[in-house]
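Lab meeting prep.
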Amino acid sequence: MPAAWGQTTAGEIVSPTNGKLISGDSGIVLSGISTDSRNINQGELFWALKGERFDGHDFVLKAIENGAAGIVVQKDWWNREVATKLLPNSRIPAIINVNDTLKALGDFAAWWRQQHNVRVVAITGSSGKTTTKEMVANILEQENLTLKNQGNFNNLIGLPLTLLQLEECHQNAVLEMGMNHAGEIGRLTKIADPDVGVITNVGMAHIEGLGDIKGIARAKTELIEKVSSKSEMVLNGDDQLLLKTASRFKKQWITFGLGERNDVRAEGIRNLGIGGMSFDLLVREDSLPVRLKVPGLQNVLNALAAVAVSLCLDTSFENIVKGLGDFAGLKGRFMVISLQNGITLVDDTYNANPSSLKAALSSIGSLVDEGRKIIVCLGEMMELGDVTVPEHRQAGRSVAELGTYYFLAMGEHAHEMINGAIDSGMPSNRAHVVSSHKEMVSKIKGEMHEGDLVFIKGSRKMALEKVVEGLE
């Protein structure tokens, strides 16, 4: 019988976490898990985590008051003073001590994953991993109930919490793995124990904590290093740095991409503008037509990665084509929105790095009819370290080379983007730094006309979705 909330007891938490039950009944049944004392439900387990801004241990009493049946805390937090506050409580929950609550959460999730007969897919990469995750899940859902992580639940907290949602009814779990430092992908891989691992690409993202592009490649290929020998790997066969770095490991993989040597590739790619993309899918000796509702060459590559994963899991071509065809895109990720007067808005506000920006800009030109203007609005790209200035200047140059009519930039290094555009020939009266979302909306409205295209992209912290909302 797989592990299940409503059946799992406090005592069963102890062994996987290498913890100790220091108070309460080991037989108490837990109805779920929460890391937030504000919305914990009656009978759930409260897991106290230390974050950058908050320490969950400060909210243990609140969690108990709100109905927690058990709590997991760190040994260095538990002492006589804390015990005096908690133990007189009229309703004492089960209290489990562990060395490190973050590590214990991952260990418990790894145990939970092993209790379920489920096929796990793990996807990482500098760009495209979320869309690829959604495409894979869409395909697998054609046959079986599939769990996937929501939003940004792709880190050392979010991924374990996702796995802890596994139920007996799930046949698949599709997990995105993010990272901003070395060792993180390796740890996530050990927790998830994937049957199929995917690396979409290696690009300039989170470089601040990894030194250089080779450091990023080493961090991403921790997935290859840590997967079990029974796992299958899917790699971008057009990414030479990825393949070179992966060659350090004696593992087998299949490749996807546009090059002729790839196991899964596309030919006859046809750009349908805001209507999406179509192409001929080639897998060994087979060829079949695929239609995507989402535009952009980057989404063809994401689709190819999803196809490769699905083939590893013996999914039929019929369900692959249907799953891809049904995929309607994701808010904030190159989402095409039609405004009044034939104006097209491309919302790519969820995040940005040099690689994803380059891919997006390469697709923008194909979405606008000849004679119509392109307006580009960019926000700061975070975590670039020593290459922050040159990469923002290059972003500006790329905007100018696109033939952009009007360019707005916001953030600490906005002036670098604007200067890069002007250096590449863009008129200075059509390239401006803005200081707020409101100002950006106002300037866009003053420039956009019938048939124009507005493209908006920036790192998560820039919250440029507020600009999209202002235009909608």
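Slide two material, second protein:
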Amino acid sequence: MINKIGRRKTSVARIYMTPGNGKITVNNKSIEVYFPFDLHQIVVKQPLTLVGVDGNYDIQINVDGGGIKGQAEAARMAISRALCEFDETHRGPLKKEGFLTRDPRMVERKKPGRRKARRRFQFSKR
């Protein structure tokens, strides 16, 4: 069993990966229930289909924080890291697709005296 962590925005995904028959659970629910949109399911399974091991591993994912898209991409990063640990030959294709790179873009914090992070209040001359 291999456990890895993936992050995206404010989402954190911890995965537990074991050889098995391809069952993926997210927060103790099936992937189809937790990620109802096909796009998010595809994002989570991208590393597995890229290296051709779809259906060879049982994966249990615990995600926390952020939105549904950030959680899906955090899970993708964690699965990619775990695949590299199972077989080092997977590292090349996964790195080329950018699945092993942490995306550092986050929401900028609100500043004092402003309406949002950069937006100022409307100027009134009189």
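Talking points for slide two:
The longest helix spans residues 68-86.
The helical segments are 31-34, 38-51, 68-86, 91-97.
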